[in-house]
Amino acid sequence: MKTIRAMFGAALVVATFGLAVAKLPPPPPMTDAQKAAAEEAKAKAAAGAAAAKELQAKTEDRVAARYFAEMKAKGKTVPAPQVAPAAPAAPAAAAAKK
Q1: Span 89-97, mean pLDDT?
Q2: pTM of the model
Q3: Cα separation of 1 and 43, whole Å?
Q4: Is 25 contained in some domain?
């Protein structure tokens, strides 16, 4: 009996939420100032992501160099890292041109 009540209550909550969301008006169109602010925020986020990616790469290189130096100082041989080649961007560019 408790399971039936719980299921009924959950269904009631879902139905009420669905009706509430369905009645919300659409958002008003963005003004030119809002569009410019959104583009600026998008550009700032892209620049921040690029800077973070560059910092991550520099940090990884520094840590790897330190590791190899420490292993060399200990007299241990460490094989060179095997880095997979980057995927060429040509197929994506060719598909975009078509």
Answers
A1: 56
A2: 0.51
A3: 56
A4: no
